[in-house]
Amino acid sequence: MFAAFANCFKIPELRSRILFTLGLVFISRLMTVVPTPGVDASALQRMIAEIESNVQGGFLSWIDLFSGGALSNCAIGALSIWPYISASIILQLMTAIIPALERLAREGEAGRQKLTQYTRYFTLAICLVQGLFLAISLENPQSLGLTHDVVVNPGMGFRLMTMITMTTGTMLLMWLGEQISERGIGNGMSIIIAVNIVSRLPNAVYAGAAMFKKVDGVSQFNIFHLVGLLAMLFLVTAATIALTQGQRKLPINTTKRVVGRKVYGGQNTYMPLRVNYSGVMPIIFASALLTFPAVILKKIPIDWCQAVGDAIYLGRPLYLVLEATLIIFFSYFWVATQFNPVQIADDLKRNGGYVPGIRPGTPTAEFLDMTMTRITLFGAIFLAVIAVLPTVMAAQFKVPSLVAGFLGGTSMLIIVGVALDTMRQVESHLLMRHYDGFLTKGKLRGRR
Fold first, then answer.
1. How far, in Å, CA of 445 to CA of 371, rounded?
2. Element (H, E) at 188
3. What are the pLDDT digits (tens) for 125-162?
4. Contact predicate 368/344, CB 8 Å
5. Do 178 and 373 contact (CB within 8 A), yes or no?
6. Lowest mean pLDDT across 8-22, 35-49, 114-128, 187-201
7. At 392, is the secondary structure helix, strand, or coil?
8. DSSP for 209-274?
9. What 3-state DSSP class applies to 34?
10. Contact of 416 with 244, CB cutoff 8 Å
11. What Cα–Cα distance (Å) separates residue 415 from each residue in 194, 201, 237, 418?
């Protein structure tokens, strides 16, 4: 493996792509430490510490984890790349519903460019709205039950400046991600998110070490807990890789066609049906659908609203049950909107392909739908278990939320998925230049 890493820098094109990616990642990290103008940094740190000490800390830590610490610094990249991700999700769902967008998606490169432009417009609008709400929250910390004033000169000027600053930061991150995808290695947006998550790893290690410090001669955790946490980290990582890579290989045969003097088809291949077809989208949908109503209900001065908000708040038993249920529901919802068995069956029939033992056309579509339904069930249950694991660790076993975030959930799925995708792209460059990849000995197999 180490020889394969060394071989990466022996190929000029791959070396330039890797260095280009690292340079843009460095720029994206700078945006997490440049503060927003008009904010008192010391007062902001005190406010963050006060929020983390109450029940809202878990949600704040979850957001701060994906922004790479930019939120706690109130940096220009505090919104991170999530407005773009939200816009992409909205547009994908609308593509499955609106026929005009579906036609654009089928028009090839020109249609994809048009959809990308629409995504950018959505991102701009989401950034402006989120920047406005963030500015209002900073101006009114009393709405969160806090006493620290963090804005030096509140007013419309500060709100406009924050909206412009946050929007510019997110749009720049979006552009950096697109440049990485085009001229670097890996998926740029995913790499930026993964780097933001990994950047919090030193803080998680420090928080994990603090768990074993003795207070008044007594430590809440001992060496057995450490061994258990390390074993759980290994098992969860292995399970996440299995979930990400798991697929059902559906055999596909093609009929022979004679065109002139050439014979086409007659090959046996397979169609990969992923166990976790929806990726991390169900976790994001479920978390957003549960967290924000809980925060809003707890602000309403009505007893039953307060009770419901407290019951479905982050870490509560009812929250865990609802989160797991919604993850399973959104897993099927995503498959229903993105996986079209009728279209796949028609394409197979048009190209002379068929599933052995299944008649082409409608029977093939029904078979694909039944197969995808079955494997999605196992993938959704597995995804729900991995998703609720950090919350259980933080709520029931008093593990710090920053440490628990690396023991499963969205962060682990993103890190593993980005690492595997990037390694696959590097592997393709190595094999194309006659080098062995990461899974075999890293030696030169032939001439470049």
1. 41
2. helix 188-198
3. 999 988 888 888 778 776 655 566 778 788 888 889 98
4. yes
5. no
6. 35-49
7. helix
8. HHTT--BTTB-SS-HHHHHHHHHHHHHHHHHHHHHHH-EEEEEEEE--EEETTEEE---EEEEEEE
9. coil
10. yes
11. 5, 12, 10, 5
CA quadruple 205, 207, 213, 218: dihedral sign? negative
Q: What is the mean pLDDT of residues 101-123?
A: 84
Confidence category of residue 424, pLDDT binned at 50, 70, 90: confident
How high is the pLDDT of residue 440? 52
DSSP classification of residue 444: B
Collapsed DSSP state (helix, strand, coil) of residue 362: helix
- The H or E element spanning position 58 is helix 57-66
pLDDT of residue 336: 84
Tokens matching residue 378: 């196992």
Among candidates 440, 38, 386, which has minimal Cα distance to 237? 386
For residue 448, what pLDDT is reported? 40
CA-closest candidate to residue 60, choices 394, 396, 416: 394
Instruction: Write the secondary structure of 152-181 as one string of H (helix), E (strand) and C (coil).
Output: CCCCHHHHHHHHHHHHHHHHHHHHHHHHHH
Length of the chain equals 448
Residue in the block written with tokens 């000995």:
441
Q: How far apart are the first and last CA of the chain?
A: 20
For residues 244 and 386, give the distance between their C-alpha atoms in angstroms, rounded to a whole number. Answer: 12
Which single residue is written with the structure tokens 């800390």?
Answer: 57
> Per-residue pLDDT for 264 more than 90?
no
pLDDT at 72 over 60: yes
Helix (H, G, I), strand (E, B) or coil at 313: coil
- Do residues 189 and 177 lie in contact, with contact meaning Cβ atoms separated by under 8 Å? yes
